[in-house]
Specification:
Layout lengths: L2 H13 L6 H13 L5 H10 L3 H6 L4 H6 L6
Length: 74
């Protein structure tokens, strides 16, 4: 890897958050459900982390919101 590419990677490393924790994903999904904003990013977070209905309910999701995700949560 050349010097220029190393500089570009090192500069971007500090500009963006490199990791997403499980807790952040859970609260992000619950927040999006509260605002009726169910998009592909929300669905991807649920499937990527394998979130369960129990975790979402403990984080504050209502029964109706969890029931609406019946096809995704297994």
């Amino acid at each position: 890897m050349g010097k220029s590419k190393k500089r570009i990677f090192n500069k971007c490393k500090y500009l963006y958050q490199m990791s997403l924790r499980r807790e952040d994903a859970i609260f992000g999904v619950v927040r999006n459900l509260k605002y009726n904003k169910f998009d592909t990013q929300t669905r991807d977070m649920i499937t990527m982390f394998g979130l369960s209905a129990e975790e979402l309910s403990e984080a504050g999701a209502s029964y109706e919101e969890i029931k609406a995700l019946r096809g995704i949560l297994d």
